[in-house]
């Protein structure tokens, strides 16, 4: 592995001069400077996978779009986060997410507190531009406290990452591939039978939609603790 | 499949040992297990997970990602219809459709009596003989729809 | 164990003498295609017949790799070691074996099976990568050595610095044969310049393009050439370990490679202190598992590490963050197979073939509605018409050519009126297709181009790893829309949506699979738009 010395780099986002540590991502620097870039699979404190493609940005001089959450900064680069081209792409991608599974908000526990819903408001999207697909999956309500409804899952893998990287249990992983991909426990066992799950509930808290929720809450009641992971990691660091 | 004391587990153990029980030995171990047992069932997957100190979910995730791995036993007889480009251009779709209809199973399925599995492949590398089907490990090239059915009938009888 | 060039020559000489003990050879093609036509049985029967006729001291029977004309299998060549004359027999079946042995005994060629070797199929090819295919016994390292094998490695280790090797490769202009055409010398140089304790060389033998089988033929017919190329890459870049990633669907290739590695290890051609130099190199074969996406560089590497084959965002590139996080060179099988001839004959010689920007040759797999299906190796820059008509023998059953598809699921269709196109990386890109791995699929006028586009889209859909949204959902949506066109139920809005989705999926997907998945649709829209219009219902 090649280690590079950390320095400070100066570049531009939307015409504004910004600086950041040379090992930062575009998203991190944008946040530090209060420039908003929409994200879905990204969650502070977890590794970045660049899977949802909502955070794509343009770089001057390149035709390629790159995800701000994984793209490292470069001296002198000119980043644009808010162009017509990006709007068009983001809307289409969000449409695809909505079309992939069943996101009927009115009956969802996360209605009103859902990151996916927020995103559609932010991007001004009223209906999906693409036809709805028909993949349907069984709901797993076997656990005494939690429910997993794969039909509301957007495959952001936050649950998989938090369980592996923060809780250390790696009880979740992905099964199958392509459109059939799902998040599962162990060997696709019912949640309650999982040998590895510690029932800590972190996955439920980080899930951006109503796919993972607590039992006993009714529609619109599931409010998630968004800063849980960052706080937890900070506490751990302080102990050392 | 019987308990992990089964002598066949030794084969899998040998692969893992050869690769130093490293976590990266997972896929090679799954290949050996499938070769020895014919398919991968949960006890075998659990055995591998344990020996390589891997999370169960990870092993299951890997086993289901690669289409070469089978989690269910194959039928007594197998027909693999090649659906690669060359075979497709030369009418592999019709062959597959006919077989699906004739035996009432879709691609990737096994008949209820466990006699026949109908599988598909993406190019078996003999494109010059397209369209091609592999009946019980014997490749049959330049097939017509009738040939295909006939070949299977022969194998089943 | 051999440590010097002299010892290598000794093996070569011994083997050559042994080969010359028998004046004649019957070489049975045991490439995949001929194998499935019963080549193994034919080899066995021939051995028996030759023995029965008491001519085994005069004529040896051996199995060799694919010589290309797969459509006319099983192929058996009768070779005279002294005169260098060769008679090729096509369409040999088990019934013909004794007749063939008799022909050898009586010195009277079996005319009815004799292949015309002066025709375009053979005459217009230039074999560099496949020079040994069809001649040497892939199971025998000594046969490879007798044909000049491992000399490049030994001389290089003795006389050349790593930078000299890289400079030769750079000067040769060799470009990666895995599809992208990235300059191989540059790739090696980047990794060579990195200061790291561990580095890796990886060979991409995943060959996922459905309808391409050149890498398979190389691995099966001449495994040592790939191994030698990889060892040279290891020396040039400072890597001591390499992996060959082969699809599990190629059991014969896996077997040949494993055998070859074992033999090389035994002779000390792989291992520690090769050729008494300070260079160590170790090789292992790893199996893929039926996932096209694992041909993508980052996915392949993570698959070797034992994970699901999900690609990751680049950069970092493999050259600084590859296998186990270490600098890694990843090249295609055919790319590695080009290294030995370049180092043996020099960069200038290599530049004598092909075009200025794409030197050398390319192996193509000709399939579809074409007379001579099979593997051919031709200089880059050859006109499509020569490839299809002179070498390929034209469209089968006397039908008319409609289009030529290159580049597999990432490529595009070239219409029949562009037959003057000179085939290389850049010209194909310009017309909206791609070199890809080298699959060339000929379609005649009975084909529906929307269906061809749908075939590839459906392929990408079922091979999408599912990690990123545009590819996972987009390929499914587009397959559904293409179905509407095929069923003549599409609307004008569907056509607009299809085009828009092509753009979004192309530009926003994470890896090459999604980024190129729309290509077959885009190129068929470009050249065969009327077939899409026909799929729109009138209202
Ligand atoms: C989806 C996908 C599949 C690929 N499949 C293959 C393959 O089967 N074989 C191959 O050599 N390269 C394949 N490639 C290209 C490789 O990623 C890589 O560029 C290549 O192996 C580099 O070697 P080269 O420089 O020698 O061409 C694929 C790329 C993508 C995006
Ligand atoms: S269950 Fe929730 S956190 Fe997990 S992948 Fe699905 S949407 Fe993301
Ligand atoms: S483009 Fe397709 S194959 Fe590549 S990472 Fe995205 S989903 Fe996976
Ligand atoms: S496409 Fe069927 S063998 Fe290649
Ligand atoms: S497989 Fe025999 S000529 Fe190709």
Largest sheet of chain A: 5 strands, mixed
| Rg measurement of chain B, Å | 18 Å
Poorly predicted spans of chain A: none
Q: Count the beta strands of chain A.
A: 9
Q: What is the CATH fold-level name of the largest domain in chain A?
A: Alpha-Beta Plaits
Report on this structure.
- The complex is a heterotrimer of chains A (240), B (157) and C (539).
- Chain A has 240 residues and is α+β, with helices and mostly antiparallel strands.
- Chain A has two domains: 8-82, Ubiquitin-like (UB roll) (Roll), CATH 3.10.20; 88-235, Alpha-Beta Plaits.
- Chain A has six helices and nine strands.
- In chain A, the strands form three sheets. A five-stranded mixed beta sheet of chain A has the order 2-1-5-3-4, covered by helices on one side. In chain A, strands 6-9 form a two-stranded antiparallel sheet.
- The radius of gyration of chain A is 19 Å and the shape is globular.
- With 157 residues, chain B is of the alpha+beta class.
- Chain B folds into two domains: 8-65; 77-156, Glutaredoxin (3-Layer(aba) Sandwich), CATH 3.40.30.10.
- Chain B contains seven helices and five strands, in the order ααααβααββββα.
- In chain B, helix 3 packs across helix 4 (56-65).
- Chain B is elongated and about 50 Å long.
- Chain C has 539 residues and is of the alpha/beta class.
- Helices cover 44% and strands 14% of the residues of chain C.
- Chain C is built from 22 helices and 13 strands.
- In chain C, helix 8 (162-172) packs antiparallel against helix 9.
- The longest helix of chain C has 18 residues, at 469-486.
- Chain C is globular, with a radius of gyration of 24 Å.
